[in-house]
Amino acid sequence: MTAPVAVGRVLPTMNEDGSRRWIRPKLSPGKFWVRRRAVAYALMVIFFIIPYLRMNGMPLVLLDLPLRRFTILGSTFFPTDTLLLMLLVLSILIGIFLMTALAGRVWCGWACPQTVYMEFVFRPIERLFEGGRSGSMRFDREHARGQLHPRRLAKYAVYLVLSLFLAHTFLAYFVGIDRLVMWVRRSPVEHPTSFLVMAFTTAAIMVDFTWFREQTCLVACPYGRWQSVLLDRQSLIVAYDGNRGEPRSRGRERVEGAGDCIDCGACVLTCPTGIDIRDGLQMECIHCTQCADACDAIMSRVGKPPGLIRYSSRAALEGERVRRLRPRVVLYPAALSLAFGGFLVALILRTPADITVMRGLGAPFAVEADGRVANQLRIKITNRDPQSHEYAVSLEGVEPGAMIAPQNPIPVGPGRTAIMDVFVMLPAAEFHDGEHRVTVRIADGAGYTDAVTYRLVGPEHPDAAGPPHESKKEPRS
Ligand code: SF4
Ligand code: SF4
């Protein structure tokens, strides 16, 4: 028998008059909750220690947005690594699709930071200060009358300290732990922008876990909205077995032939998004398994086998053949192998430096007093290596001319970019049809060399080079 579907409900967190319906879920510490807690604590430890870890002399993860440099597992990616970044993002997206097709919203219930910190940090503190669901509901009523209980105030104070800690840890991923420590030690007056960023992040975390809560999953997170296309009938979901549970009936009202559901409501009371899983698969369900834990406890009390609410699939629950192999389970891994394989190949083939040769600012060339033609080159060198290097530039194909570089070689720190200005002087006669090709060779003295062919421009007709020092328009693009 299929479970009845709720009608007329817009959001579980909204009362009919449009006001906020606060969800105060009752804890169900069953077998899934114990496992989820272990996973959550492990993830928290990983999150806290990553900013302190280094690999190849670089931070393990550093997402430097202002400089547009992303260091992941000791490798730094720059905006010029478009292909690499595109393949990495594509791999992550396909990986999410695959994970959802196989295991449903396992990310939401077990690993999403919103769930992990809400259910295993903020909610336990709330229960400690307010005395569980009934205590919180009492404080809610007082709050509605304009009274703020001192215990709730104390909870907010602890939340603020936690939000500060989480905000600092979060920002360490974007600015690096060294800069973060420097910010913390110095007066906010000395670095007002970073202080404001920190204050804003702390406020956002505080508001999210104190007030917005489950609404992040219900109305803000796009992943929840994708579920209708990411899940199929064979995907693993947390589901109520209507065949076994219906018709539900409670206590003394129980009738002959009634299902196993005793309509106790424990699965609803424990749900952190406030839904009734017996209404079927819903977008609001984050697959946290709290209802499964609650129901298993009830089943054990009434002497029935556990699993009335369990991990299953819509196909399995409706008696259809369970098909492990289906198009999306084949196509997603194939696409993932291509995207991630391409990423790995591009990563392996990536050079330890990124060289871009550009034309100098201003006129494309100038004719000097001695009749020679001068080109200005700007050579942008990005050092991807974890070590500092001195990059020396030489030119091939400038004889009988000369190359002048105010600073050659030029030192470039790890992950840094430097620009070297180079002037190339060539007799006008060396230009044919207004151009002369040279090879720009760059070497770091530690085994890396690269060569870039560059087109110098000059007068199209050398005999009519014009008066000395006169800058010419580039003859053609
Ligand atoms: S219905 Fe169950 S699995 Fe879904 S969010 Fe609620 S408690 Fe978690
Ligand atoms: S906890 Fe189990 S028995 Fe109780 S209402 Fe939910 S599904 Fe029915």
Topology:
Blueprint (H helix, E strand, L loop, with lengths): L30 H19 L4 E2 L2 E2 L1 E4 L4 E4 L2 E3 L4 H22 L2 H6 L1 H18 L1 H13 L5 H26 L1 H9 L6 H21 L2 H6 L1 H9 L6 E4 L1 H4 L20 H4 L20 H12 L7 E4 L1 H4 L9 H23 L3 E7 L5 E3 L4 E12 L5 E8 L5 E3 L5 E3 L4 E11 L7 E9 L5 E9 L13 E2 L5
Antiparallel strand pairs: 1-2, 3-4, 4-5, 6-7, 8-10, 9-10, 9-17, 10-14, 11-13, 11-15, 12-14, 15-16
3D structure, described in words:
The protein has 15 helices and 17 strands. The strands form five sheets. Strands 8, 9, 10, 12, 14 and 17 form a six-stranded antiparallel β-sheet that branches. It is elongated. Residues about 1-5 and about 465-475 have low confidence and may be disordered. The termini are far apart. The relative contact order is 0.11. With about 475 residues, the protein is an alpha+beta fold. Among the domains are: about 30-80 and about 110-215, no CATH class; about 355-470, Immunoglobulins (Immunoglobulin-like, Sandwich). The chain is about 40% helix and about 20% strand. One iron/sulfur cluster binds near residues 270, 272, 273 and 285. One iron/sulfur cluster (SF4) binds next to helix 12 and helix 13.
Beta strand %: 15-25%
Uncertain regions spanning at least 5 consecutive residues: 1-6, 466-477
Radius of gyration (CA) equals: 32 Å
Mean pLDDT: 88
What does the overall shape look like?
elongated
Q: Which percent range fits the helix content?
A: 40-55%
Using DSSP, what is the number of strands? 17
